[in-house]
Amino acid sequence: MIRPTQVPMRERDPRARTNTFDEVPFGYTSDEAREEAARCLQCRDAPCMNGCPVNIHIPKFIREIREGDFEAAIATIKQTNNLPAVCGRVCPQEVQCQAPCTLGRRFEPVAIGRLERFAADWESQHGVRVPEVAPPTGFRIAVVGSGPAGLTCAADLQREGHAVTVFEALHEPGGVLMYGIPEFRLPKRIVQGEIANLRKMGVAIEVNAVIGRTFTVDDLFTEGYEAVFIGTGAGLPQFLGIPGENFVGIYSANEFLTRVNLMRAYLFPDYDTPVKVGTTVAVVGGGNVAMDAARTALRLGAKRVMILYRRTEAEMPARVEEVHHAKEEGVELHVLVNPVRFRGEGGRVVEVECLRMELGEPDGSGRRRPVPVPGSNFVLPVATVIVAIGNQPHPLVPRTTPGLRVAGGGTIWTDEEGATSREGVFAGGDIATGAATVISAMGAGKRSAAAIHRSLTRSRGRA
Amino acid sequence: MVNMIRAKQPLGPNVVELVVEAPRIAARARAGQFVVVRLHERGERIPLTLADWDPGRGTITLVVQMVGKSTRELGERFGIGDTIRDVVGPLGSPSAIRRYGTVVCVGGGVGIAPIYPIARALREEGNEVIAVVGARTKDLLLWLDRIAAVSSELHIATDDGTQGVKGVVTIPLQEVLTARKVAHVWAIGPAIMMKFCARTCQEFGVPVTVSLNAIMLDGTGMCGACRVEVGGETRFSCVDGPEFPGDLVNWDLLLSRLGTFTDEERYALERYVAAQGGRL
Ligand SMILES: Cc1cc2nc3c(=O)[nH]c(=O)nc-3n(C[C@H](O)[C@H](O)[C@H](O)COP(=O)(O)OP(=O)(O)OC[C@H]3O[C@@H](n4cnc5c(N)ncnc54)[C@H](O)[C@@H]3O)c2cc1C
Ligand code: FES
Questions:
Q1: Spatial distance between the Cα atoms of A291 and A172, rounded to a whole number of angstroms
Q2: How confident is residue A363, by pLDDT bands cut at 50, 70 and 90?
């Protein structure tokens, strides 16, 4: 008999957890993992694999977990995914690998993400094996940006024996994994562990290097790098563009989360960076970023946190688990609501005026378009507002790299392999697609790494 | 050693000049740009305008007013041979240096230091540079020799009249704008000073560039903490600026946003001072 429901993952109590930034889910024990793995039907055609942007051999690693061979399981995962501890925690599995799961037609799909997380955590407790690196090829490659795209590209190229240097603008590598996604969802020691492994493989990481300011892409070629991969992400915060948006107390989600995660403002004054959260907080948006900001605000002492979203819960782009956790912790979802103006007193925000919305015809994204209900204006008192309505590609590298073609929405144009309009320059992740996911950024990093490796090997063949 | 302090000297009460090894930044720096520094593992990221740089020696010069916890810590606890954990730059868009004709460079307080490289660059480009500097009192004036070396006239004002004319910098600025045909004015100093310089220039119909000291976090355009309103539009001062046309700046907004963390800043400073066993 197959267990119809997933083996639940134990979590911190919702009431207790808003006092701490400690991780919410505890992860499976070995027994729980083996029980969940036993639910897998081991389908020959493995529909789950088609849902995985990096094509992890899912049935194989799950079989290995079922058999108790955790070492083999993690090795299987790592053949195609070098950041499983991260992906197991943040991938939207419900729309990726778990969506086509055969079991899911009648029961709950196999909890593939939780099993991936289990295997990765098992490895980190039992000593991580640093991947073997091929003998040096003599080629030097520069990777710009150290988010999941850059880290993946760097790992794959280093493994082929190339000498990779990663240039990162901030003082710590990791991209959104360090500055955006909060500790309670992705502990920073996990990201730091992955980066330490990369260094052990021989990848050099230079922090405080802003490409476009400290150096340009052209400087990198002058310095002798033979190829450049750009993975600078979608770091440009979008604002609503409505009156009063610059009042004190209104943050972009990027600012709010960077203060808390990268700068550890939740430990102020032991850490120097401050962050201020009022009693009533409104978070505008319905994605992962909004959920992260809302749950962070609760942990910083806010009494009431409201999510203002212009569509309904069904359209929220956030992972199901994030919405679930947010609601459990007491975040209020105010859907079909759109802010139209902020009011301030003495320069500080005190109110947000909103319009009610209703769903109209589907738009380009296939989701029903929210349209305002005339005259439905109402006012909410707020002390803090966090704008989490999306991020756009970071413009610094495109602006300072002559000949780099920019496509719609400020993304860097690339072909399927990540090659840009400039010879030797590749790009991938959010900078090429617009804000997307960790796993798609990793997939892009991988494809570009393969393309760079091929082109360098070919050029050597000719020489 | 990169980020090591090579020289340090006091420039007056609560103001210190630091020469820091930063060859990559020195090689690329342009007038008007800044760096972001983080003192140590627990430090905050603070923006400091480049006061000078030497590509040959691979050093940059920072002039720091010790007003808050981090700047006091930098001035008091960091000495020659110490290393600053992170220094990143050069950030921001450089000043628009070209041939204008006669220009005026106004520096107020520690703003005298960052106006210096702008004046120098303008002079090298063939402009006649008239300098106007001011401070509360004589002891707070700095780098007068350097400013004098790159300008044809040096006008000084102090609030208490201990050096130069008694009063604020707009007094000599007004005189210069009355007497001479001036093509462009740069003003760097406290927000209030820049606001009044901008007003004076507007009265004379002379374009004025100011350098905005907004609160910053990353300094690379990814957070919007530094947003300011210029001509009714929201701009990020770390990438679109820090220099903007002074007559278009929403000064009230800048001043109120600078007060975002006043309570926290005061608390951090008090705590720091208490830990030093000292006084505020
Ligand atoms: C708060 C938040 C929560 C999210 N939650 C999820 C989630 O649960 N699941 C999921 O799959 N996705 C999530 N995402 C999206 C995901 O994080 C991104 O899609 C992914 O990180 C993109 O990776 P990247 O490598 O392209 O860029 P990034 O992770 O953005 O990294 C880019 C790096 O490049 C650096 N950089 C930028 N410009 C320069 C320059 N000029 N020179 C040098 N370095 C530069 C940046 O500092 C940064 O470190 C979330 C995003 C945010 C903001
Ligand atoms: S300081 Fe973050 S965008 Fe300017």
A1: 24
A2: confident
Question: What string of DSSP letters covers A141-153?
Answer: EEEE--SHHHHHH
What is the CB neighbour count within 10 angstroms for residue A364? 6
Which H or E run includes A204?
Answer: strand A204-206
Residues of chain B numbered 55-94 and touching chain A (CB < 8 Å): 69-70, 85-91
The Cα–Cα gap between B83 and B88 comes to 14
State the amino acid at position A201 in one-letter form: M
Please name the residue that has the structure tokens 């688990």: A321
- Looking at residue A260, the DSSP 8-state letter turns out to be I
Per-residue pLDDT, A99: 93
CA atoms A89, A149, A132, A206: torsion sign:
negative
Tokens of A124: 């980190």
Name the residue at shortest CA distance from atom 2 of ligand 2: B223
pLDDT score, position A408: 84
Q: Is the CB of B225 under 6 A from ligand 2?
A: yes
If you take atom 2 of ligand 1, which residue's CA is the nearest one? A289
How does pLDDT run across A392-401, given as a tens digit for each residue?
A: 999 999 999 9
Question: Which residues neighbour B154 within 8 Å (Cβ) at sequence distance 6 or greater?
Answer: B131, B133, B144, B147, B148
The three-state secondary structure class of A100 is coil
Task: With beta carbons less than 8 A apart as the criterion, state whether B154 and B127 touch.
Answer: no
Is A276 within 8 Å of B44 when comparing Cβ atoms?
Answer: no
**Are β-strands B208-211 and A163-167 bridged in parallel, bridged antiparallel, or unpaired?**
unpaired
Residues near B235 by Cβ (< 8 Å), separated by ≥ 6?
B227, B228, B229, B241, B244
Q: Which residues of B touch A255 (CB under 8 A)?
A: 217, 223-225
Handedness of CA B178, B179, B180, B184 (dihedral sign): negative
* Best of A245, A260, A273, A275 to mutate (most B CBs within 10 Å, chain B): A273
The ipTM estimated for the assembled molecules is 0.94
How far the first Cα of chain B sits from its last, in Å, is 33
Comparing CA positions, the residue from A361, A356, A359 lying closest to residue A373 is: A356
Tokens of B194: 């820049």
pLDDT band, very low/low/confident/very high, at A202 (cuts 50, 70, 90): very high
Contact (CB, 8 A) for A88 and A118: yes
Is residue A2 predicted with pLDDT exceeding 80?
Answer: yes
B171: number of Cβ within 10 Å? 16
| DSSP string across chain B | -TTBEEEEEEEETTEEEEEEE-HHHHHH--TT-EEEEE-STTPPPEEEE--EEETTTTEEEEEEE--SHHHHHHHHH--TT-B-SEEEEEESPPP--S--SEEEEEEEGGGHHHHHHHHHHHHHTT-EEEEEEEESSGGG---HHHHHHT-SEEEEEETTSSSSEES-THHHHHHHHHHS--SEEEEES-HHHHHHHHHHHHHHT--EEEE-----SSSSSSS-TTEEEETTEEEETTTT-SEEEGGGB-HHHHHHHHTTTHHHHHHHHHHHHHHTT---
What are the CA-CA distances from residue A308 to residues A66, A336, A367, A428 (Å)?
43, 8, 18, 31
Handedness of CA A317, A321, A323, A324 (dihedral sign): positive
SS3 A76: helix
d(CA B106, CA B206): 14
Q: What is the pLDDT of residue A82?
A: 86
